[in-house]
Amino acid sequence: MNVEITPNYSYIFDFENEFIHQDTRVWMVKNWTYVFYYCGIYMAVIFGGQHFMQNRPRFELRGLLAIWNSLLAMFSIMGACRTAPELVHVLRHYGLFHSVCVPSFIEHDRVSGFWTWLFVLSKLPELGDTVFIVLRKQPLIFLHWYHHITVLMYSWFSYTEYTASARWFIVMNYCVHSVMYSYYALRALNFKPPRAIAMVITTLQLTQMVVGCAINIWAHGFLQTAGKGSCNISEMNIKLSIAMYFSYFVLFARFFYKTYLSTNARKGKRLVQSASSNGSNTAEYSISSKQASIGGSINANLLTAAQQTDKVKAQ
User: Which of the following is catalytic: 147, 148, 177, 220?
Assistant: First the structure.
């Protein structure tokens, strides 16, 4: 019994049905190198912005932040719903090799192809996450801006090659971002999700990095056994991807330890709880140092929380 290479979608939108992957690939091949200019402008804006804001009061931007995160959450949820069925379908009916080596998610599936194209393009406006950090004068860590620029460059480059293994990376990223941006949106709206959710998000990100490395190892193995003509991923792409995912894993693991497991993290949690019990507003310092990070939630400035506690005691 032959099984269609694409899943049986219950509904296909007109804009999905009109997607022509060849046109988008031609555009990307011609223009993907512009990403280096975008990254240069991004670095100049964020570090120049930090210098500009150094002696100026921080902006709150809570309403704008809530809208921004809500839009990104809805986009990510929609993207996950439109790309995950293709990955599941391929794994069930065609197996791991097809999911890693055959780019049917772009070439034969207009729904998944359209949302893959949007995923690649979305990495550019997502740089706006950092603007909120700069204007709100929150800590800007290396993990945040490094993650942003490398994902942008790798995504645009991979689209020019129709990297088959990218279906895994895209689905994972959409799913994690669905949870992450929803969490940030709730915090921006003054809801207070449990701290455990922040830990779950970082754990999901770590899992994403482990799976990403595993997919690249499988891709390398398939290239050796099946040959380059059978597996649509280049050796260069595998090297770049595994280096990127491994570096992310190291940085996220270090962040997870410092944020949730280290002695300072536990002390900070007790300080926040103590200040809260005395009526101090420490919502800004409990879990995240940035409301819109692609790279994960960052813990609050512990010194600021301690100062809040001292103010309460002084009163």
Answer: 147
Q: d(Cα 99, Cα 166) in Å, to the nearest integer? A: 9
Q: Name every residue whose Cβ is closer than 8 Å to that of residue 179 and which is 6 or more positions away in sequence.
A: 200, 201, 204
pLDDT single digits (tens) 207-241: 999 999 999 999 999 999 987 788 999 999 999 99
> Among 212, 213, 205, which residue's Cα sits nearest to residue 293?
205
Q: What is the 3-state secondary structure (H, E, C) of 15-48?
A: HHHCCCHHHHHHHHHHHCCHHHHHHHHHHHHHHH
Residue 140: how many CB atoms within 10 A of its CB? 19
272-306 burial code (b ≥16 CB/10 A, e <16): bebbbeeebebebbbbbbbbbbbbbbbbbebeebb
DSSP code of 230? Answer: T
**Locus of tokens 């790279």:** 295
Whether 220 is catalytic = no
pTM of the model: 0.84
